[in-house]
Write a structure and sequence with these properties.
The complex is a heterodimer. By secondary structure, chain A is of the alpha+beta class. Chain A has 2 domains: 186 residues, Uridine Diphospho-n-acetylenolpyruvylglucosamine Reductase, domain 3; 97 residues, CO dehydrogenase flavoprotein, C-terminal domain (Enolase-like, domain 1). Helices cover 27% and strands 18% of the residues of chain A. Chain A is built from 11 helices and 11 strands. In chain A, the strands form 3 sheets. Chain A has a 5-stranded antiparallel beta sheet, with no helix packed on it. In chain A, strands 8-9-10-11 form a 4-stranded antiparallel beta sheet. A two-stranded parallel ribbon of chain A has the order 1-2. In chain A, a hairpin with a 6-residue loop joins strand 10 and strand 11. The longest helix of chain A has 19 residues. Chain A is globular and about 55 Å long. The N and C termini of chain A lie far apart (53 Å). The N terminus of chain A is likely disordered. By secondary structure, chain B is an alpha+beta fold. In chain B, the strands form 7 sheets. In chain B, strands 8-10-6-19-16-17-18 form a 7-stranded mixed beta sheet, sandwiched between helices. Chain B has a 6-stranded mixed beta sheet with strand order 12-13-23-22-21-14, with helices on both faces. In chain B, strand 25 and strand 26 form a beta hairpin. In chain B, helix 16 packs parallel to helix 17. Chain B is globular, with a radius of gyration of 26 Å. Classes of the chains: A alpha+beta, B alpha+beta. Bound molecules: flavin-adenine dinucleotide and FE2/S2 (inorganic) cluster (2 copies). Chain B: It comes from Spongiactinospora gelatinilytica. Chain B: Belongs to the xanthine dehydrogenase family. Chain B: GO terms for molecular function: 2 iron, 2 sulfur cluster binding; iron ion binding; oxidoreductase activity. Chain B: This is Xanthine dehydrogenase.
Chain lengths: 302, 837
């Protein structure tokens, strides 16, 4: 034992199948040993535009590319903004869409190597210890929020993902409450990319994250919103949130309220209805509704 | 595998599991890129891969195959000269990474925008992946802006703010983590996994690190060590070491009546959280030590007045309970030591330490060697802040392993070890009461402080209230709450930040209640003449005169301005000597001190050049070696005030001796101050001099009441520490002190799992130090009068520049929102909760 808290092998469920290596920014930080290198799979890189205006983004496309690409920024501004604000420039330069969607969670206990549901253990040390950065929606045995900001943005865009041998699936189907893992792909299953439907005419979108420090910090809560406003009323609303549940979530109650003509703050407050906070995450209720309120205001202002 | 490094095509051998930073550092000896966190959070490992900055610690070596890699050693860019001229560095450990990123950014910026200085926010966004614990951000902003504007295109070396700037910027400066001898092994420490246990047996280890009592008292306590040719092998060996424990009952939450951390006859072994000796203290419970009341002033009077006021519900009585989280030192260079025993049996320790001389003394004691058989070297030290004093654990492990393995051994703590066991400013709880009389004068002060230094004792939070606000009666009681967690230790201005957090906010409350300007009130209460001058400066600041009425705002974003005063002792090492030798054309200065980023080498150089009228190339300062004549530790803000006068004395002696004849040797001393010292004789080379250094910080914040974020926008730091030896270096120190104070106020919190006793903030994402985007705009103002009695005319300022910062943030938040924070750090959840009440 070299590190004080290394009571189980960090890095997740032990599996005989070697993991894929994309950008490596999550995998290598978890110090796993061997991998299957995806980086020569150049066919999985880049953004392809379909005639109907939809986009296919290869799994190996870097996050920097998502943030930079002019056409993507115009068509899917909330996705581009999410990409631009997450992590740091060096990370974004190599981290990939696929790796972001399939990264492991950032619970301090899990990362420090405590035995827990996520690595073959049968407990949640955060729940028994310090759960301040935990979930506020859902009440599964594991309280680690899902880490992927891009998954949350893709959810707001009703995107699908393509998995080798399984075709296209809704992005939401990658995730579940299973406390032993952060995504539902089987070991060895390869994510090929994501596909976003064509943007709706007149839609505006925004992304907001709540953090203590200004940058390079994991969000306490984050949200992406798409709105189409016509004749003074909202005719399309898609709102997703991250940092709050075991999976990225859509907030249908907020969407419904907006479509029914509720003012922004009131609609945002609806997000609270599905919250089931832990004693230590009660603040996240206000933070979530605040983040949603801000993202809606920002989308409308843009 | 083929790569091109710094323009040279190379064939390197590497394992698939190696990362690029390890191949460059260990395989190619290019140690400019540092592996400071290994999780992508700090940027110290940044290299350019085909022109793009990449975190070398997360880059598989195979990813750079066939690519063009530039390391800090291979970069040639105007940004480098800009960093040197604008002092965009202190200890320099983070600097090569910053410079690589800044170079790429400057090129991109200029291509897109031409030669104009970018806005601050653009620079911050570009450098978001870099952390600097010294807080050299203001210098970095200035350097990047100037380089983008084209100010440094014209080749030629600028006059650097510090002499070793270019060596650090280009990655050529060797820190202890960078040393690699022929045949050197890598060591790893096996640490306790239980908070309290007797160790029954250990197997598979090479060195035993347990004391005679065979007892571990916290998770992470060193138990044993192993060494192997590579780090990876050493870690594997360490994992294979088997330790059998007989668990003992443990205390983690500090509630009374818990199982004793130290048995009655073991208490004398409890380490001290304090820089000085352990204070005497009785134990009022198994895990509660104290009260220590020695520094009270008319304590009974204070107690009587406070009790009467409490009883009668006197409205002039103010106070409350304040808490502060533990803060990890988090030097960017982790604790590191390369140990080697030579054929004569001498011990050589090349280590990252603030105390080469004291470390050598302690090592001589530990291995029972004459003092001159131990040689400690610390040429460059990547930050210390109080966490690298004496014979630290990594050096013990390295030396023990080196002896067993008969080879040089390097032990470098991982970031997780560093954050868990590398030292911390103990958390504390302060109960404070303040009573004013009919004339609004301070009538009585009561402070009860409970320090939480883990298994270490001797907290002095309340006692420091002796230093402020005149001679009013005060009852000051310090307690230690013991737990089976790692020991706290001295950290930049030990004990003062938590005290001032409570005290200066309570003073603000008094002012608020009386409807008096907070600076005017302090001016009335504060007898310190030097701080009086600072108050005059502070109350004329436009930000202060234009501050909003407290609690008057209702919008989402609210601005506020807060003030806090601070004080710190003047410490000096009166035994300091500086030896000058003329070696050919060059005057070489030597003393057993070290430069941890404060600029000691540069201050000495400047004095020599001035006194002897010499160009830069004819002066060389060799410090960081314990074999030289006695010099000060780099702690307690004493290095400059000790070494400066001794250097000047040496220079004058050399002049008086007839000039720079080759081979001439003189020794300069640090002559006694005119009024002598408060301490009759130095303890550990430390004397407490007469007079207190003073500070006044004024901070402007913006509070986002919706998302709970507090942004410090601007900080004005007024410092009264006498004559400034070097304007730019002093400013850098004070700016860094402010950045660390901001971290303490808003972000930093070392968390210990209440069930297992393990620290869970073990990486630089979970342990949050301020990044460049969190750095406010800073202005420093020096009051230089009032220190004529001090030899050299000036005292240290490293500590006084940080102690009051958090309190000024607290007062600013109160001004903005009408809500007073009581608990540090002021996290978003706390702010939201506070505002909702
Ligand atoms: C300081 C810091 C802050 C950060 N903040 C954020 C943030 O706010 N939001 C956020 O979302 N992320 C954040 N990150 C995380 C970062 O975005 C991820 O590390 C990154 O996106 C992972 O991508 P990668 O390509 O490097 O993944 P890798 O490390 O290569 O892979 C991650 C996982 O996905 C698997 N995988 C990768 N590609 C495929 C594929 N095509 N098919 C199947 N499996 C695959 C791998 O086997 C591995 O298990 C932060 C990181 C740091 C260091
Ligand atoms: S060492 Fe690579 S980012 Fe910190
Ligand atoms: S100069 Fe940045 S860490 Fe010291």
């Amino acid at each position: 034992m070299t590190e004080p808290t290394r009571v189980a092998a960090a890095g997740g469920t032990v599996s005989a199948v070697l993991p894929f290596l994309a950008g490596g920014t999550d995998l290598i930080a978890r110090a796993a040993g061997e991998w299957i290198d995806l980086r020569d799979r150049t066919e999985l890189t880049g953004i392809a535009w379909q005639p109907d205006g939809s986009a296919r983004i290869g799994a190996l496309t870097t996050i920097a590319e998502l943030a930079r690409d002019q056409r993507l920024r115009a068509a899917y501004p909330a996705l581009a903004a999410t990409a631009a604000e997450l992590a740091t420039p060096q990370i974004r330069a190599v981290a990939t869409l696929g790796g972001n969607l399939l990264q492991r969670n950032r619970c301090a206990y899990f990362r420090a190597g405590f035995a827990c549901h996520q690595n073959g253990g049968a407990c949640c040390p955060a729940r028994e210890g310090i759960a301040r950065y935990g979930t506020v929606i859902g009440s599964g045995p594991c309280v680690a929020p899902h880490p992927s900001s891009l998954a949350m943005a893709l959810l707001a865009y009703d995107a699908t993902v393509e998995v080798e041998g399984r075709g296209h699936l809704p992005v939401a189907s990658l995730y579940g409450e299973d406390p032993t893992r952060d995504h539902l792909l089987a070991p060895g299953e390869l994510l090929l990319g994501a596909e976003l439907p064509p943007p709706v005419a007149g839609e505006r979108a925004a992304y907001v994250r709540a953090t203590g420090r200004v940058q390079a910090e994991w969000p306490l809560a984050e949200a992406a919103a798409r709105l189409v406003v016509a004749g003074g009323s909202v005719v399309l609303a898609a709102v997703a949130a991250g940092g709050v549940a075991r999976t990225p979530v859509r907030l249908p109650e907020v969407e419904t309220a907006l479509l029914a003509g509720a003012p922004i703050a009131e609609a945002a407050a609806r997000a609270a209805t599905r919250c089931a906070p832990l004693p230590e995450t009660r603040y996240k209720v206000a933070l979530l509704t605040g983040t949603v309120e801000h993202v809606l205001a920002k989308a409308i202002a843009d | 595998m083929k790569i091109t490094v710094n323009g040279i095509p190379l064939e390197v051998e590497c394992d698939r599991a190696d990362t690029a930073v390890d191949v460059l550092r260990d395989g190619l000896g290019l140690t400019g890129a540092k592996a400071a966190c290994r999780t992508g959070a700090c940027g110290a490992c940044t290299v350019l891969v085909d022109g793009t900055p990449n975190a070398g610690c997360l880059l598989p070596a195979t990813a750079v195959e066939g690519r063009e890699v530039i390391t800090p050693e291979g970069l040639e860019h105007p940004v480098q000269r800009a960093f040197a001229a604008h002092d965009g560095l202190q200890c320099g450990y983070c600097t090569p990474g910053f410079v690589m990123e800044a170079a790429a950014f400057a090129d991109r910026w200029r291509a897109e925008h031409g030669d104009v200085a970018p806005p601050r926010a653009e620079i911050a966004a570009a450098l978001a992946g870099h952390l600097c614990r010294c807080g050299a951000y203001e210098g970095v902003f200035a350097a990047v802006a100037a380089a983008c504007a084209g100010d440094f295109d014209g080749g030629g070396p600028p006059e650097p703010a510090r002499v070793e700037a270019m060596a650090k910027i280009t990655g050529r400066a060797r820190y202890s983590t960078d040393i690699r001898h022929e045949g050197q092994l890598e060591g790893a420490i096996v640490r306790s996994s239980l908070p309290h246990a007797r160790v029954v047996s250990i197997s598979g280890h090479q060195a035993d690190l347990l004391g005679e009592d065979r007892t571990v008292r916290y998770v992470g306590q060193p138990v044993a060590a192993v060494a192997a040719p590579t780090r990876r092998e050493a870690l594997a060996l360490a994992r294979a070491v088997e330790v059998r424990y007989a668990p003992l009952p443990h205390a983690l939450d500090g509630t009374p009546g818990g199982p004793p951390v130290w048995g009655p006859d073991e208490r004398a072994n409890a380490p001290s959280t304090s820089e000085s000796l352990c204070l005497p203290g009785r134990w009022s419970d198994a895990n509660l030590r104290g009260p220590f009341t020695f520094l009270s002033r008319r304590g009974r009077t204070a107690e009587r007045r406070l009790a009467a006021a409490r009883e009668s519900g006197d409205p002039r009585l103010t106070g409350g309970t304040f808490t502060a989280a533990a803060q990890s030192h988090t030097a960017m260079e982790p604790h590191a030591c390369v140990a080697r025993w030579d054929e004569r049996g001498d011990l050589h320790l090349q280590m990252s330490t603030q105390t080469v001389a004291m470390t050598a003394e302690h090592a001589a004691e530990r291995w029972n060697l004459p003092r001159d058989r131990v040689h400690v070297a610390a040429e460059h030290v990547g930050g210390g802040f109080g966490g690298k004093m004496g014979l630290t654990g990594e050096a013990v492990a390295a030396a023990e392993l080196a002896r067993v393995r008969k080879a040089p051994v390097r032990v470098v703590l991982s970031r997780a070890e560093e954050l868990a066991c590398g030292g911390n400013r103990p958390g504390a709880r302060m109960e404070i009461s303040m009573l004013t009389d009919d004339d609004g004068r301070l009538a009585a002060l009561g402070v009860d402080a409970y320090g939480r230094g883990g298994l270490a004792v001797s907290s002095m939070v309340a006692s420091l209230a002796r230093m402020v606000y005149g001679r009013a009666p005060r009852r000051l009681r310090d307690f230690d709450v013991l737990t089976n967690t790692p020991p706290g230790g001295p950290f930049r201005g030990p004990f003062a930040p938590p005290l001032l957090w409570a005290l200066e906010q309570t003073v603000d409350d008094v002012a608020h209640r009386r409807g008096e300007d907070p600076i005017a009130l302090r001016r009335r209460w504060d007898g310190n003449r030097k701080r009086q001058a600072l108050y005059g400066w502070a109350e004329r600041l436009p930000a202060w005169t234009g501050r909003p009425a407290t609690g008057s705002q209702t919008g989402r974003y609210r601005r506020g301005v807060g003030v806090a005063a601070g004080a710190w002792q003047y410490m000096v090492d009166p035994a300091t000597e500086v030896e000058l030798t003329v070696e050919g054309d060059v005057v070489v200065a030597r003393t057993a001190t070290q430069d941890i980023g404060t600029g000691t080498r540069s201050v000495m150089t400047a004095i020599l050049r001035e006194e002897l009228d010499l160009p830069a190339e004819r002066v060389r300062v060799e410090i960081g070696m314990s074999d030289a004549r006695h010099g000060p530790m780099s702690t307690g803000s004493r290095a400059t005030a000790s070494v400066g006068p001794a250097t000047r004395d040496a220079a004058r002696r050399l002049r008086d001796a007839g000039g720079l004849a080759d081979g001439r040797r003189v020794v300069g001393r640090r002559r006694m101050d005119r009024l002598g010292y408060l301490t009759p004789f130095p303890v550990h080379g430390n004397a407490i001099g007469r007079g207190l250094a003073g500070s006044v910080h004024v901070t402007e914040v913006e509070v986002d009441t919706l998302l709970g974020r507090i942004r410090p926008l601007r900080v004005w730091g007024g410092i009264a520490a006498g004559r400034i030896y070097s304007e730019r270096l002093a400013r850098s120190q004070c700016e860094g002190g402010i950045v660390q104070g901001i971290g303490y106020a808003l972000h930093e919190e070392r968390l210990v799992d209440p069930v297992s006793g393990a620290v869970i903030t073990t990486n630089l994402e979970d342990y949050r130090i301020p990044g460049i985007g969190d750095c406010p705009e800073i202005e420093i103002h020096f009051e230089q009068e009032g220190w004529d009695h001090v030899n050299g005319g000036g005292v240290g300022l490293g500590e006084v520049s940080t102690v009051g910062v958090a309190a000024s943030v607290g007062n600013a938040v109160h001004n903005a929102t009408g809500w007073r924070p009581h608990d540090l750090p002021i996290r978003p959840d706390r702010l939201l909760e506070g505002l909702s009440r």
